[in-house]
Design a protein that fits this description.
150 residues, mainly alpha, Ferritin, 0% strand, binds fe (ii) ion
Length: 150
C-alpha cells in the first residue's frame, strides 16, 4: 500500500476538485445579463475540467489502496464577475500548489509523477487564463498597452 501521507494528500486534492465542480457550476448558473453569453459556458467548462481531474485522482487513490473522499469544501460565489475571476484565480493557484506538493510526495514513483504533472500543467493554464482575465479591467494598463511605452 502506498504511503498514507500521499493518499491523504491526494484526498485533499480530490476534495478541492469536488469544490471546483460545485463552485464553477454555480458561477455558470448565476451568470446573468450580457456576459452570460460568454462566461456561463466558460465556467461550465471549468466545472467539467474539475470533474475530469476528480475522476482521475479518485481512480488513482483506489489504485494506490485508498478510499476516495466524497466531500467538498465551502464554495465561494458572487454575481460580480471580477470577484468570480479573483476567487477562481485563487482556486487555480491553490490547485497548482497542491499538485506540486503531491509530486514531491510521489518521490521516485515516475509514473505517478508524470500522471500528476499532466494535471499540474492544466492547473497552471487555469492560473494563466484567470490572470489574463483579471488584467482586462479599467484599472489595468494592460487595457491600453501603448500607455506602458508612452
Ligand atoms: Fe483541477
Amino acid at each position: 500500500m502506498a504511503d498514507q501521507i500521499l493518499i491523504d494528500h491526494l484526498n485533499e486534492i480530490l476534495k478541492h476538485e469536488w469544490t471546483g465542480v460545485a463552485q464553477y457550476s454555480q458561477a455558470s448558473f448565476i451568470t446573468e445579463g450580457i456576459w452570460r453569453e460568454v462566461y456561463a459556458e466558460k465556467f461550465l467548462g471549468d466545472a467539467k475540467e474539475s470533474f475530469g481531474h476528480a475522476r482521475l485522482v479518485g481512480d488513482k487513490i483506489v489504485a494506490l489502496g485508498g478510499v476516495p473522499v466524497a466531500t467538498r469544501n465551502e464554495i465561494q460565489q458572487s454575481r460580480d464577475l471580477q470577484e468570480v475571476f479573483t476567487f477562481s484565480l485563487a482556486f487555480e493557484a491553490k490547485a497548482v500548489e497542491m499538485y506540486s506538493k503531491a509530486i514531491e510526495l510521489a518521490g521516485d514513483d515516475k509514473p505517478l509523477v508524470v500522471f500528476l504533472e499532466d494535471i499540474l500543467k492544466e492547473e497552471q493554464e487555469g492560473v494563466d487564463e484567470y490572470t489574463k482575465l483579471l488584467r482586462n479591467s479599467n484599472s489595468s494598463a494592460a487595457t491600453n498597452p501603448t500607455l506602458k511605452t508612452a
